[in-house]
Every structure is written in structure tokens, then in C-alpha cells.
Amino acid sequence: MVPATYFDGRSTRVHGVELSVIGEDLLVSGTDIHLLIPFAQVRVDERLGRAARRLRFPDGGCCEVSDLPALDRLLSATAHRDGWVDRIQRHRRSILLALVAFGVVAGVAYKWALPWAAGEGARRMPPVIARVLSTEAMKTLDSGLLRKSRIAAARQRSLTAQFDALQIPGRGRPKSALLFRDSPQLGANAFTLPDGRIVLLDELTNSIGDDPHILAVLAHELGHAYEHHGLQLLLRGSVMGAFLAFYLGDISQLLAAAPVALIQARYSKDFERQADDIGAAVLRSHGLSPGLLADDLSRLSKLRPDASNGGYLESHPPTDERIRRLREMAR
Amino acid sequence: MATVSLSATATEPAYPPLPIRFTGRGSEYFGIWIVNLLLTILTLGIYSAWAKVRRIKYFYRHTELANSSFDFHGSPTRILIGRIVALAMLFVYNYTVRVRSPWVLLVLVAFAVVLPWLLRNSFRFRLYNSSWRGTRFHFRGSVGGAYRVFLLNGFLSLITLYVLAPFTHQRLKAYQHNNSWFGRARFSFHASAGRFYLIYLILLASIVGFGVVIGLAGIGSTFTALGHAQQRSGHVDTREIIRFLIYFYGALLLFGMLIGPLFHALLTNLIWSSTRLENHRIECRLSPWMLMWIGASNFVLVVITLGLFIPWASVRLAKYQVESIRLLPTSDLQEFVDAEPETIGAVGEEAATAFDFDISL
Question: Model ipTM?
């Protein structure tokens, strides 16, 4: 006998009843209630914490049971079996297992699955999206941080011509275009937009000086363009943002906004290495030495000894290591 | 106190105020939460609809009024459909706005036409799938009413530079609560627009006060430092930027932790204490201070535990919010009768729910 409260589904009247199983049927009996329902037609709610569970009947009526152990004993006499999610979410060991599994899955997703998916996504994405994003970004930059370049037009033309001739050996040439701008705030810098546009800032051009060394920087940026690094970063950021909003959104929107920016900075390292490799290959195929890029890096790091200072080196962390790699490739 | 109010309810049979109790526990909810998370990430988000149903069910079933708990009956597939629709709309919106496509006007008009209808259907979904003592809630707001509230009033508050926003808010709540039913019993809403204006004025005053305090506390000096750094070398010092960001983000956080709970408490108290179910009154007494304390301490603990405290934090907040509500009944609550399908008319609720889904993400 299991004590329960019966509701007929048509009114909120409370009927105290007792439940028992007779053969294949459920017997609901109280002072003014007497029901015999085939158990196969009874739907049993899954267990959620210590909340009362309900047995639902085909006519819309239901029984609320608060004595969960008694209900379990009653159910064990029937064909009812708890669902698997029901079981794992209430046993301490499986909860712990779920916690560990969540940690592992999240780690794998972050370290391998997300970068892979972002790479594939960036390659397959219709080019119009990257173009629109870049055009918008360029408009914003041009109305704020960037100014017209003061590099002589002839020099610009000659650099553009040399840049346009660059090829990645065996892989052709990604869609790209060279833009000249000046920016006192950003200093000696060059960056690549999602659609492959490369922005070269005057201070970088001036502090490096000769064409082969500038070409080395552009070859490196061409590597970023070829691998769609900008778009990959954007995709990773969006997925991370969506996940964190889901993970933390339950409790606080404020928390969800912050960490994406912190996590993103870490990604650049691999991307820089890839771009260095492609840049080195480009340089070699044009009869230039990868050492040029190493020269640029060491010159820029001397230009700003404090590496955390804003500028070209900011998103390129282990400069010494990169210089060493490039010098080895130059040998 | 009993000794003071001897004469208060001498004539009618008194039904004592009924507290609403919340019996959930963080440790129990943790199991549900972590399994939800794991399955959601394994299914690339698809399971999140099922997760949402489990979460709502957990909170509903641990909410008790007069020894009977509430229940939720929503189907995960409907919620999944709702999420897909909402994501598609978000995508279309972002895309057309970014591209500045000539279609943008058409898209905006289409949204304006569709959204009130969708929101009304999602109110209906939420209420129809909620029950207490085996009897369901219903939302019977008309489509026309939804257009009046969301389009007309929304538009009015927009063109008056939000001077009419409190009025619009009052209209929205009146539309929601006056059209809500429990079985055949109807809810009613009794807060005037004036009381919404009062709360919005308090909000405005506290925002101004907050701004002044924060301004004095040094956002100005940070800006000046930023300016100096720029003049000195032509380059912005990264550390200055970081200091500025920390300051800015800190101010934002403080705003969310102080003004947010204050506004939430005042509004929720007004809205629920002005709502009745037939003759039964509801009373809501959220304390802004308690909400601030719970919010701030939850925040700190969630950060320290890298999110693992979230289940306890949610349960703690839900418990405080739910238990600040009391029902002041005028009966033993046994008289409510479920709306029989035929009384809803030819278009039964079940049939009409073909387009009902929860669009909240």
C-alpha cells in the first residue's frame, strides 16, 4: 500500500488514496474513489530529486506520491523501468563520472574539435560573408584608428606589385589585397582581415625600411590569409561565446561576456607558427631567405623592448622562439 | 501579531496565508545539471531542449503550494523547434543588417508582423504546459491584443524616447496577467501605470546616483591617464588600457549587482502583489538587499569554483524568490475546475497549439 493524493484532472479537489498493484493492474482506492487501471496505460514520471512523482492515467487524472521509497517498491512489482538519464542523474558515482566526462569532452572539444571545425568552417564558408565582415571592420577602423597612409604613391605601387607577385609554393595564391594606412595608436603593425585584405601601417614600413624585409612581413601575413586565420578566430570566438552563455547564462549574463576575450588570446600562438612556416616557404620560393622575417621580428622587439607594449608583437607571444625557428629554416 | 489583531477576521472563516515553499537542493540539482551539460555538448546542443524541460520540471516540482507541487508538461521537441526558429530569425536579422541588404526593411517589417504572434504563442505554451493539482493554466490573450501591446505600445514608447516605457510595461503585464487562467478561474491585474512610473523614476534616480559616484571615484582620472599616455609617446600603454578595462568592467558589474536586484525586486513585488486569482490575492515581498547579497555571493562562488557552484546558486536564488511569495486565499483551494475542452470553442487548445512553442533561448 502506497499513500497518494488523487486528482481527477478536472478539479483541484484533493482525494487521499492508497495505491497497490493487483496482477497487471493498478488499484487506486480511497473513501470516494475506486479505480482499477491497467498498469500498461499508466505513465510514471521520472524521478527528479525528492519531488513528488506522479502516475498519470489515460483519462487525465493523476496520483501524486511523496513517499518515493514506497513507490519504488510498488514499481518493482510492475514492468516499469526507470529511464537511463533518470538513473545516471541520481547516483553519486554516475554523477561523478558525468562530471569527469564533461571535463574530458570539454577539454577535447576545446583543444581539437573546435580548432578543426573552425578550420573546416572557415574554408567552406561562402566568401561573401568574410567580405562583408571585413568591409564593415575596415569602415569602423577607417573612421577611428586608421588614417590615410603617408607613404609615397610610387613606393606603394612598387610594394603592391611585389606583393602581388608572391606565390605560396604548391598552393597558389589566396585572395588578398594590400592596403596602406597610418595609425599613431597602433604603431608598427600589420594585420590581415578575414577576407584576406592585408593592412600595412606606415610605422612598420618606415621602421623596417627595405623592400625584401617588408615582403617578409607580407609573406607572413599571406600565410594568415591562406589559412583564413581571421575567420577561424571569429568562428572559435562565436562558439565559445555561445557555450559560455549556455554554461553560465543560467545564472548570470555578466559572467558570460568576459572570458571569451581572455581565451581567444591563447589561440594566436599556433596561428603565428603556421603563418611563419608559409611565409618562410613563400620567401624561399622567391629566392629570399626566411632569415628576413627573423630580422624583422628581432628589429621590432628591439623597437619595443617591453614586449607587452601595444604593437605588432602583442599578439605574437614567444618572439625569441619564433626567431630561432626562422633562423633554422634559413640555414 | 496575534495579540494585536483580535478583531481583524472575526466574521468570515479565516484561511491563513499560504506560503509557497521550495524544496529543491543544490546537491540534487547538481546531478541533473551536469548530466544536462554533458549530453548537450555531446549532441552539439540538440539535447539542450530536453535539458531545459528537465530543468524547468525540477524547479516546478519542488515548488509547493498547500502540499501540492506544480508541474511542467512542455514537450522538448516543441522547444527545439522554437530554438531553431529563433536562431534562424537571429541569423536572418544579423545577416541582412550587416550586409545592409535592400531586404532589410522587408525583414524588419516581417519581424514586426510575426513577433507579437510568436510571443503570444510562447506565453500560451508556457502556461498551458504548467499545472497544479492536475489542473492546467491557460493563456487566452488575443492576437489583436498582442499586436496592440508589442507593436502599438512599443512604437509609442519608442517615438516618445521611452517616456511611455513604464506605461508600455504596465500594458504588457496587464495583457499577460488579465488573460491568464487557472482552469476556469481567471487572473486579474490591478497595478496602475502610475506605480510603474514611480519605480522607473526610482530606477532613473539610482542610475544617476550610481553614475555620479562612479564618476567621482575615478573613471575620469582613468580617462585622463589614457590621454596622457597617448600624448607622451603616441602609443597607448597596454597597462593603461587594461586598467581602464578593469575599471569599466568593474563598474558595469557593480551596476548589475546593485541596480539590477533593486529594480527586479521593486517590479516583481508590484506585479505579483497586484495580481489576483479570482478573489485570492497574491503577496510578493522580495527584499532588494537580499537579492543583492544572493547575487553578489553567488557571483563570487561561481567564479571561484569555475562554474561548478551554478546548481547551488540557481537553487538558492529560486528558493529565495519563490518563498517570498504568499497566497492569501479566500477558500481551501479545492474549488478550481479545469476548463473542459468544449468550453474553449471549436478550436481546441490542443489543436491550436500547432504553432505554439517556446521561443525564448
Answer: 0.77
